[in-house]
Amino acid sequence: MPDWSDLVKMGSYKELAPIDIDWYYTRTASIARRLYIRSPTGVGALRRVYGGSKRRGVRPNHFSKASGSVIRKALQTLEAIKWVEKHPESNGRILSRQGRKDLDRIAAQIRQSSTPEREQ
């Protein structure tokens, strides 16, 4: 967890910082899942995905992008654990072979642990 995680908002459209203590891990996992589904993806595309409606008082709401710094640091964290690598031909990032294997394993564990609950 970065040192600045208690000081940052998720985007300029947000009014408050995240309440959840583990928000950085949740966002990083969400980015890993997004890369699993659609690769290559860059910081700009992820900013649009995680963006939201900016409240402007009495004026109409407008779409605003999410914080690029948070997304960039999350991608750097995933690169440090060898789950993500830079795409050789474009500017985006792709899920590495190790990252895909680990996400498949985690998904299988979750499915196996949730199967007995459905049978009851």
UniProtKB/TrEMBL annotation:
GO molecular function, one term: RNA binding
Biological process terms in GO annotation: ribosomal small subunit assembly; translation
Keywords: Ribonucleoprotein, Ribosomal protein
Ribosomal protein among keywords: yes
Domain of life of the organism encoding this protein: Eukaryota
Pfam families in the record: Ribosomal_S19e (PF01090)
Keyword Aminoacyl-tRNA synthetase: no
SUPFAM superfamilies: Winged helix' DNA-binding domain (SSF46785)
Listed InterPro entries: Ribosomal_eS19, Ribosomal_eS19_CS, WH-like_DNA-bd_sf, WH_DNA-bd_sf
Gene Ontology CC: one annotated term: cytosolic small ribosomal subunit
Family: Belongs to the eukaryotic ribosomal protein eS19 family.
Designated name of the protein: 40S ribosomal protein S19
Species this chain originates from: Loa loa (Eye worm)
